[in-house]
Write a structure and sequence with these properties.
There is one protein chain. The protein has about 300 residues and is an alpha/beta fold. Helix content is about 35%, strand content about 25%. A six-stranded mixed sheet has the order 5-6-7-3-8-9, sandwiched between helices. A four-stranded antiparallel sheet has the order 11-12-10-13, with helices on one face. A three-stranded antiparallel sheet has the order 2-1-4, with helices on one face.
Length: about 300
């Protein structure tokens, strides 16, 4: 079953086309991630699917509902963590969950909910005094008060330290194990590669590729590479004497593209025969981040460079 179906979705703000006719679907029970730099159209897409904005054209169904026309019915079945989640300064997580329970008219098990998001020890700490990671975990707890089928997480780990980020990852993995659908936007490629069943990369309002992380890497990657810490002399030797596709990166590393397993053996033999200095030999293949940078031209972790408008 499909939790989300989008077809030819468009949204413009004056002359700026924020979303330019995208189509994708999200299956029930999967984690689906939208990736892209600032201004790619991720947040606008999410807000349309949440029923916060209307689209100019195109079809969209979320849990069988039209988000704009049937927002009341939809909002009782979804959970949302907006970008840059904030709350009142002085309620505690325990009080915040009780408050949201009253708003939704449901009886939430407060202790169980806080335990699910790893916030039990801070249940009675003022929001003002919570760490960044704890605040995000409270946002996740509030998004689960109504026992949603689908959770929208818009950059839930932006600005968190690595330990806090990984704690939020565990919460997201827990949601997936419970069979909930998660639509995740993120600036962190490793996060998407770790958590998402499928991803779609957006740029300038368009989806430029989609699939599982493995499919995208296989489709757009450059294959396995042998990397050696050495100077450009070794790269030249491997090209000229061994006929290998070797490149020097200008920063003390030579990379050899391995088309077959025999290329690895040939490279090792040639490196030994060269008599040149080298160290730190390793093999690797492209990550999702490598593919993203190759296709979009920047790392989404690097924000505020002026290339894209916010949003």
């Amino acid at each position: 079953m499909r939790a989300i179906e989008v077809e030819s979705l468009e949204k413009s703000y004056g002359s700026l086309k924020a979303v330019g006719g995208i189509s994708f679907s999200v299956d029930e029970g999967e984690v689906f991630s939208l990736l892209g730099p600032n201004g790619a159209g991720k947040t606008t897409t999410i807000e349309i699917l949440e029923g916060l904005r209307d689209a100019d054209s195109g079809k969209r169904r979320v849990l069988g509902f039209d988000p704009w026309k049937q927002g009341y019915e939809l909002h009782r079945k979804i959970g949302v963590i907006p970008q840059g989640f904030k709350f009142f300064l002085y309620p505690t997580p325990r009080e915040a969950v009780r408050y949201y329970s009253a708003l939704f008219g449901v009886k939430a098990d407060v202790d169980k909910l806080l335990q699910r998001v790893l916030l039990t020890e801070s249940a009675d700490t003022y929001f003002l005094k919570l760490s960044g990671g704890q605040k995000q975990k409270l946002g996740m707890a509030l998004s689960l008060v109504n026992d949603p089928e689908l959770v929208f997480l818009d950059e839930p780990t932006t600005g968190l330290d690595p330990a806090a980020r990984r704690a939020v990852w565990e919460v997201i993995r827990g949601l997936r194990k419970e069979g909930r659908t998660v639509l995740l936007t993120t600036h962190y490629l490793q996060e998407a590669e770790e958590l998402a069943d499928r991803v779609a990369i957006m740029d300038h309002g368009k989806i430029i590729t989609s699939g599982t992380p493995g499919e995208i890497i296989a489709r757009h990657g450059s294959g396995d590479r042998l990397t050696i810490r050495a100077d450009e002399k070794l790269g030249a030797y491997l090209r000229e004497k061994a006929g290998l596709a070797a490149e020097f990166d200008g920063h003390g590393r030579v990379s050899v593209r391995l088309k077959t397993k025999n290329d690895a053996l040939s490279a090792l033999k040639a490196i030994e025969e060269s008599g040149l200095d080298w160290s730190d030999l390793s093999t690797r293949r492209d990550s999702l981040e490598d593919i993203f940078i190759r296709m979009v031209g920047e790392n989404p972790d690097d924000q505020g460079n002026g290339r894209h408008p916010p949003g």
